[in-house]
Amino acid sequence: MASTLNSNNSSIERDTAELRRALATSPSLDNNVQLSAIPPILCYCFASILMTVVNKFVVSGANFSMNFLLLCIQSSVCIACVTTVKKLGIISFRAFDWQDAKTWFPISFMLAMVIYTGSKSLQFLSIPVYTIFKNLTIILIAYGEVLWFGGRVTGLTFVSFIFMVFSSVIAAWSDVSNAMNDAIPTAGMGSIHDVKDVVQKLNIGYFWMLVNCLTSAAYVLTMRKRIKVTGFSDWDSMFYSNLLSIPVLALFSIVVEDWGTENLNRNFPTETRSFLFMAIAFSGAAAVGISYTTAWCVRVTSSTTYSMVGALNKLPVAASGMLFFGDAVTFGSVSAISVGFFAGLLYAVAKNNQKKAESRMHSEGIIPLTSRKP
């Protein structure tokens, strides 16, 4: 009897092994998996480009100064969209809870500052420069994880960081050169006042870019701790982040920004007012699209593929600024985008290699040095 059971068990194991081997080597299955990954990748790229372009369009007005109001409207539209989609049964997230709100409020406040500083950066800098400098946030997050979470920076990752810094230097040099050439006519008779205005605008833009990188890194590192405490899903964090940011942004808008009739007319001219509000509402809905396509991309492919797509996506995002806003296409700007693109790709490969190495060590029962406790 026992021998019969053993024979049956071994037969089942062989059949199971053969089935797995057939599935793994089936070309039709590979093709289906590859084809199923195309729609989420394309949708994520489209949503991120669309979001950047629309935000740049809204804040590019010569007299636009109501960034807090802009972000408050976007967050309100975002909450309306996710609530509607939840009622339709397409997504689900936990109901509002005051204890969760208290725990998550610091994250929501930091996110509001990240988005605000990002919008201010876009107001003064071109899309290619903004996109390239956002790479520096990756470096801050990586070393923040080394300090607070026992993370590790491999040699290849460090090389990618060098290329990121190099691309930022090229972008800044190209940006300053182009701005100076525009301010000073070919004859060299440009006024000192024009040059000062250009330098001041660039200084303001790079200041907001620096603050944005710092706040973005702090936001990601802090959220990593809070998510473990609350157990939030992606939709939970999106819901609470946007909902709790609305009163913060509304308060800052009322206190800091000028709500006088004259200033409102400058920010929202009568001839373009309806279109501007439509663009703002659309950008709020696009934020939902980015969150959904991000989750979709990671679910259908993998986090590694998603990081690779994020690296490759910087090229079309930067190119969108040249296409839609007439950003200068020069040797310096193209070189900066190319180096930044290569740096992002190298970083994705480095993280993929690191993940494989750590998985191999865990499977062999070896505890990585960063995970060992004294």
Automatic annotation (TrEMBL):
The chain crosses the membrane at residues 41-58, 125-143, 155-173, 204-223, 235-255, 275-298, 331-350. NCBIfam families: nst (TIGR00803). It comes from the Eukaryota. It is a multi-pass membrane protein. The keyword Repeat does not apply. This is GDP-mannose transporter. Belongs to the TPT transporter family. SLC35D subfamily. Keywords: Cytoplasmic vesicle, Endoplasmic reticulum, Golgi apparatus, Membrane, Sugar transport, Transmembrane, Transmembrane helix, Transport. It is found in: Golgi apparatus membrane; Cytoplasmic vesicle membrane; Endoplasmic reticulum membrane; Membrane. Homooligomer. Involved in the import of GDP-mannose from the cytoplasm into the Golgi lumen.
